[in-house]
Every structure is written in C-alpha cells, then in structure tokens.
Design goal:
Layout lengths: L4 H24 L3 H20 L9 H10 L14 H19 L9 H13 L5 H12 L5 H6 L15 H7 L4 E10 L5 E9 L4 E8 L4 H11 L8 E4 L7 H9 L3 E4 L9 H13 L9 H17 L30 E8 L4 E8 L3
Parallel strand pairs: 1-4, 4-5
Antiparallel strand pairs: 1-2, 2-3, 6-7
Helix pairs in contact: 1-3, 3-4, 9-10
C-alpha cells in the first residue's frame, strides 16, 4: 500500500547504515599507515574501472547518506568520482530537509488506533449518523470525550459512507424487502411478428411472481385492473416500484395509492433502480422466451403462466439460500448425504414440453 512506502524506505536506510557501522568501527581502530595504504590500493582499482569506462551502479539511500557524512571530515571534491559535486550537495540539502521535516511535525498526536477503528466501524454500521452523533455516542455511552471535528478527520474517505445525505437504495430495498412489490413490462414477438407485452409483478422479499399477464395493447386502465386482481385487500405491502413509462400514468399512481401502497418511481434511464424486476425479466427470456415461439397472445399467455408456475414452485433461487419461493418446508435431513433409501424413487415431470423438469421423491408401496 502507498502509505507503507516511506516506512519501508526508512527501514532500508537504517538497515544499510547498521550494516556499514561495524566496518566503520573496525577501520577507526587501525593505524594511520594502514588506512593510507588501503586508500591508495582502492584508488588504483578505481582507476582501472575508469580506464574501461565502466558505469557504476545506482547508489542506495544508505550509501548516499554515508557519503554525505564522510565528506565532512576531508576535502571530498578531489575524491568524488561516481557522481558530480552538485549531486552530492543536493543529497546533503535533501537530508537536511528531511531531518527538519521529521523534527517539526505539525499538529497533535493521533488518537489511539483502537479508537480510530471503532469510529470507522460506527460509520459503517450506521449510515445515517453524522460526526456529532458519533461523538455524542462515544461521550455519553462509552465515556470517551472527542470532538466532532476529530471524528470527521478519521471518517472513511471512500465508499458509500462518505455521503450521508440519505440511506443507499440497496439499504432501503433490503430493509423493506418483505413490503416491496416491483412491476415492469417486457415484449415478446409472435410467429407473425406481432409485438405482445408481458406485465410482471413480483414480490422482492420472496422473489415470488405475484401476477403475470399478456396484452397486445398495454394501457393504464388494463394495468390498474391487473394490480387490482393481484393485490388482495388484506395485503401487508407498503411500496410499489415501477419506472416512468407512459403506461404508469398519474391515474395509475392514484389507483395504487387507493390500494394502500406508496409509489416509488425509479430515476430516468436507471434500470438498476428496479434491478430485481429487470433480473426477473432477463431470467424469463433466457429460460423460456428464447426457446419458445408463440403463435398468438393466447398461446403466449399459456407459455408464460406455465413457466411462472415452475418459477414459483420448482426453480431454486440462490438469493434465498438457496430456496424456492413457494416451498413451505425443507426436505427432511438424510442419514447418508449421497444415498437414497431403498423405497425411494426419483420422479421427473417435464415443464414447457421438456424445456425444464421438476424432480421429486416418491416412496414405493411396501
């Protein structure tokens, strides 16, 4: 991660300095004559590399720092070979700037890491809270007195928590899944190239298709009648999601309100706001309409109703755990996971002429 790079660079410099420190101590204990002789010996070898015009390798930060420190004890300009004198002076200035930058760190010390993580957790768990609410929670319930500005300093900068004007759409849908209905239209082409509209109404919480019907001419009155047939008088739904198509007129919204529902219109050109219904329409195309050719609207209605029955009663849904919308109880647990009992027999019932199959267990007579 980016914030670890300066720490790693400083650690590499310290490791390089620590590696050269034993050599410096050992050389300081030697006699002056031995040091002069070794210096001439190394200069002869360096002159050999200069004659061959061999470029030296790039110096590490630790080597640069050692050169800057050693240059303070002798006239280094005549001995400098690997770089220009201006480069060494630039290293010295950079080391001076880094030293005083470390010496004069502005601001107060950061709050403990555990408290910072707690603030981030509270922000993520409570999307409607602001910095003042979190500061008050910490003071009144945990006894930690902290300023709202300090809370804001450690607020997550990325993700949905950076915008706290309202809750996210996904959060709203998840909180009201059992009380949400969604509807939409899709089209199908018959064998004579007629366009037939399919109206779909689904319950988001259970993924169950509440109602489905077809018509060649969708109107607001026809759609209102479909909603009246599908939604019972003693329902527990609260919201109905639909887009801004002309069929969903103001008269339809008034009729929906009379049924005890609140209308939620999706934004313009935002099908993801009605994602569950859009996914249902895609599933209907991939598993049914892409493999069937309807003769007319009556034939299409028969096909769609048979597939809807299979969808509600026989098709597993991964979002349910997996589960089936109209499945009342799970099958009993088996003693052996991969073995059938002797009296059990697997039956298969074709759906849509064999396009899909429903499987079940039957017990043979003793």
């Amino acid at each position: 991660m980016s914030f670890l790079r300066p720490i790693r660079a400083a650690f590499d410099v310290l490791r390089g300095l620590a590696g050269d420190a034993p050599s410096l101590v050992r050389l300081s204990l030697r006699s002056r004559t031995a040091l002069i002789a070794e210096n001439l010996f190394l200069r002869k070898q360096l002159a050999f590399y200069q004659e061959r015009d061999i470029r030296p390798r790039r110096l590490t930060d630790a080597a640069r720092l050692w050169l800057v420190l050693w240059s303070r004890f002798f006239d280094w300009k005549s001995a400098l070979i690997v770089v220009k004198p201006a480069t060494l002076i630039g290293w010295h200035r950079k080391a001076f700037q880094l030293f005083w930058k470390w010496k004069s760190q502005p601001g107060r010390a950061p709050i403990p890491l555990r408290l910072r993580r707690l603030i981030v957790q509270m922000v993520r768990d409570n999307p409607t809270w602001g910095e003042e609410r979190i500061a008050h929670e910490l003071w009144l319930k945990l006894g930690i007195r902290i300023s709202p500005r300090t809370v804001r300093a450690y607020w997550p900068s990325k993700g949905p928590w950076s915008h706290r004007n309202s809750q996210r759409w996904n959060t709203f849908v998840r909180n009201h899944a059992r009380a949400l209905l969604a509807c939409d239209f899709m089209i199908a082409i018959t064998v004579r190239f007629r366009v037939i509209y399919i109206f779909v109404l689904m319950e988001i919480g259970s993924r169950r298709i509440v109602h489905c019907n077809v018509t060649p001419h969708p109107t607001a009155d026809w759609t209102i009648q479909q909603l009246r047939e599908a939604i019972p008088s003693d329902h527990e739904y609260r919201f109905l999601i639909h887009d801004r198509h002309a069929t969903f007129s103001s008269e339809l919204d008034a009729a929906v309100t009379a049924l005890g529902l609140q209308v939620l219109k999706t934004p313009i050109r935002a099908p993801q706001a009605n994602a569950y219904c859009e996914r249902l329409i895609g599933t209907m195309r991939r598993e049914c309409l892409d493999y069937m050719v309807a003769l007319n609207d009556r034939h299409l209605r028969t096909i769609v109703r048979e597939w809807v029955s299979h969808y509600n009663r026989g098709r597993p849904h991964s979002s349910l755990g997996p589960g089936i919308p109209d499945q009342r109880s799970a099958p009993p647990a088996r003693e052996h996971r991969h073995c059938f009992e002797d009296e059990e027999r697997v039956t298969s019932m074709p759906v849509l002429g064999g396009l899909h199959h429903d499987y079940a267990l039957e017990r043979s007579a003793a």
